[in-house]
Amino acid sequence: MRQKRRILVVDDQSINRKILTKILSENYDVFCAENGEQALAVLRGQNVIISAMLLDIVMPVMDGYAVLEQMESDPQLPHIPVIVLSQADKLESEDKALALGASDFVQKPYKPSVLLRRLSNFIEQYESTERIARMERDALTGLYSKDAFFRRAAERIAESPDDSYILVATDIERFKLVNDTYSNVVGDKLLKFISGGLQRDIDKKDGVCARFGADQFVMLIPDADNFNVERWWRRPPPTQTSFPTCAIISDWISKGNKYVPVSVNVSHKDIYKEDLPEYLSALVARHSLRPSQLHLEITESAYTENSEQLIGVVSRLKALGFTIEMDDFGSGYSSLNMLSELPIDVLKLDMRFIQKETEKNSSRNILSFIVSLAKWMNLLVVAEGVETREQLEILRNMDCNYVQGYYYAKPMPHEEFTKILLQSDLADPISADEKDWGVGTVSVHEATGAKAMLIIDDIKLNRSILAEYFRNVYTIVEADNGQVALDYIKDNYEKIAIIMLDLIMPIMDGFVLLERLKKDNTFSDIPVIVTSQAGETSEEHAFELGASDFIAKPYNIDVAIHRVQNVTARNAVQTLEREKHMLIKMRQLALEAKLDPMTGLFNRVEFENQVRAYLETTEKENVHTVFLMLDIDNFKAVNDTKGHASGDEAIKATANILRTYLREDDIVCRMGGDEFAVFIKGELTKKTLGERLASLCEKLRFDHGGMKLTCSVGASVSPENGTDYQQLYQTADVALLTAKRLGKNQYQIYGGSLEMPARVLYRSMDWLLDESSDAIFISDTKTYELLYMNNVACAMANKDKQQCIGKPCYEVMWGNPEPCSHCVNIDKLSTNYCEHEVQPQGSDRSYIVKGKLIDWGGRKARIQYIQDNTKRAHLLREMEDISADRKMLLDLMPGGVFRYFARTGKFSFISENMLKMLGYTRREFDEKFDGSFHNMIWHEDRAKTLASIDAQIARSSYDICEYRIEKKDGTLCRVYDTGYFRKTARGGEYYVVIVEIRDKKM
Question: Taking all residues of the chain, what is their mean pLDDT, rounded to a whole number?
Fold first, then answer.
């Protein structure tokens, strides 16, 4: 049998540890710790292998953050999965814990299924990782892996701790350039060559060598004085860059005063030279050229080598006036983030996009997206590799600025190109800044009588294509950015049938517009189809924000029409479904309004409505019915003994008995509390009614948690006892009261009078006293003989009533051999109640006894009411202890403590130490500062201090500040203030500790 994995639960609250142990114990062996120090001790121990840890954050001694920091920094500690236990409103603590290395978090209260699933997933992931980590050797180089190196190095040092060692870490500069230029196969050969040389030298020194990853190597070398590390760090000599292109451009200008900018590729090794900008500036100056006449091409792959250095060099070139082009964009080396970081002017698209354009529609979508994105960023776009007329037309539809490729000409010698240039007319260059993005327009086409299709796209061609597709079906409305479209939607949303939305636009893009529409339920019924370049991320994001469907650009008419028809049809169905669901919900709410939520029976209002309606419709027919009222006997004792949750279960059990026993045609309801009503249709003979009621009382006798429960029932018959609801209810209630006062656990049928029978009145006093929750007894003032005890007093004495009457009260009630001290002086009692606390000798219970003198059948007697005061007394003692501890802690603090309301600034508490520090009495303090924290701050420091507190509390629940307070003697006291803000229903309170600063200036 496989041994259970071990889980460590770390929480200072005992109840939380018990809950988690109960959830986990079936699947895991659970170990518990009360704080961080205990947890680390368990983890460092050699006897227990822990698979995962559940960690609370807020704990004494050492909190959860400190545990995570220790586990992160100490390699000796196991890096097991750690799931943080957090509160639902503490997002900032979850973020911090995750940043410190926690695997995940679960919120309180715990959901067992979720907790067990997450725990199982993380343990499996961790164990899989551990199995992989046990592979000691790097597959490519044969050197130790990283984990193996740590273990071997630790063993080596442990074997000879007195020896000296050197730890060497090295990597290969610009190693990625080797892979990019010569392929990964060559790069792997280089890694093997270097690792072989390192291993040979390390073996000579009996050291340890490892490949940590990629081109990174680490070595532990004993006695390393003679080890030649530099033999592996030799650098190749720098190369020179030459640009014959400048001479060619200068020749064009001298011959015909004509030129076109020529793009020159700057190699990887040249672009990283520090003196490149100065070298190129001198070069163009030497040929009497302007920097703008030379375009510099930088390949996209250069960005991935050393992005910070590249950005610095390019920025200097840009500042000198050179035009910067990004060549081969889209070849896969970097992210789109590069466009926002590099100060480029022209984007040259990778020719592979163009060449595959007609073969794969996804390439077309990617290309269209890049063109739109570049134009949005005011970059000129040059598409390379155009070979066919079809490719040219596709790029023209995408609004691409320039194209080049074999479709126009093949590469030629510069002499041949010079002849063509000098014989040609040159067009003005296109500028990326020509369009005014600040202007937005909405145009409404001729109305067709149908609802509108709103087409939102910043490119007119795209809008025109969709408008042509759907002009016969919808009234077309065009908008060229999200902001003007949103304004139109707000004013005309009832007219809009569907929205066609582009994602990449100026001013407000499609994502922002979708988010705005999602937040306003007014627009939730309008379907939105996103029309943009295909891409899994953009599609998923659009659907997350509420888009109905997605159409990729460039458009396919059949696909577009099909998607619009599907979306509008689906939207119509969803609208009908919503209306149907709303109707069902309304019916459900209407039914719930008629039912008692606890039992599922009819509530009082619905019961009364149905009974009245039945009686009114059958009034002339003289129909016979029976109206029952019933409740649970001694129900208060269930709540007092077992708790209100148990009382609710007793009510539900009674309801289930009624639902099962009575006929489907009978109307049953819960009137409230433990009281029920039943309306039985049809005539019953007196004998049959009696048998039915006796049987019902028998069914209603049941065991509930060790208590025997019974019910009393009162019945009223129509038309003999009444013909309307109020009469039947009143007479059935009198019958119920009669049944209860005659001893309960029985039924009574209304006898024809609203007055109680004499035998009922005779027992009224006993019944009332027995219904009391207090123990009540009456004793003779002289002899202390018990004259009466109610049921509660008998239960308290744990004796039968007949055994107690006539015996001394102090013996029966308190177990004393002589009269109690609180009863000896009869002079203290009068006809007014007096009260005292009694704690029986040898018992930890406490009682409140109220007593007075009464006349009992001509005898002078005392009546005493006893309430169990044990819980209250214990609570008072605990509160006194807490108050004393609190006062002691406050007195021991070096400074002062106070609390004030955030909304008003008024103090709610000030410690004595604080008043002593400032020299005031509490009254003097309140008069001086009008009881306000704001007024207490010295007026010159007030605005700055309050602003600092507000700013800090906006970021977290704590603030730290310094300010001055005027003492009673007129001097200023500088204090250091540490505050905590606690949210409350009244706007929150600040808890503050201040310490006087004696050696620091403001």
Answer: 81
Strand partners, 961: 977
Q: How many domains does the chain have?
A: 7
Q: Residue 858: its pLDDT value, please?
A: 65
Calpha distance 451→498 (Å, rounded): 9
- 776 with 753, same domain: the answer is no
| 840-878 residue pLDDT tens | 777 778 888 888 888 775 678 888 888 888 888 788 777
Nearest to 592 by CA among 605, 574, 578: 605
Q: What is the pLDDT of residue 1?
A: 53
Terminus-to-terminus CA distance in the chain, angstroms?
70
User: For residue 274, which of 317, 303, 243, 235 has the smallest C-alpha distance?
Assistant: 317
**Domain presence at residue 94:** yes
Are 574 and 601 found together in one domain? no
Element (H, E) at 883: helix 870-892
Residue 792: which of 806, 775, 777 has the closest Cα? 775
What is the Cα–Cα distance from 958 to 952, expressed in whole angstroms? Answer: 7
Length of the chain: 1002
Say if residues 212 and 153 touch (Cβ distance below 8 Å): no
Segments of 752-870 assigned E as strands: 775-780, 786-789, 834-838, 847-856, 859-868
Tokens of 582: 């709303």
Strand 475-479 with 452-456, pairing:
parallel
> pLDDT tens, 778-807?
888 888 888 888 888 888 888 877 678 888
My answer on whether omega of the bond before 894 falls inside 30° of 0, hence cis, is: no
**Which amino acid does the sequence have at 568?**
T
Residue 936 token pair? 């207490």
Phi and psi torsions of 746, nearest 5° = -160, 175
Range of the domain at 942: 893-996
One domain, residues 49 and 157:
no
Nearest to 984 by CA among 867, 901, 925: 901
State the Cα torsion 587-592-594-597 to the nearest 10°. 170
Residue 298's DSSP bridge partners are 326
- Of 170, 231, 172, 166, the closest CA to residue 205 belongs to 166
Q: Which residue has the tokens 């480029």?
A: 344
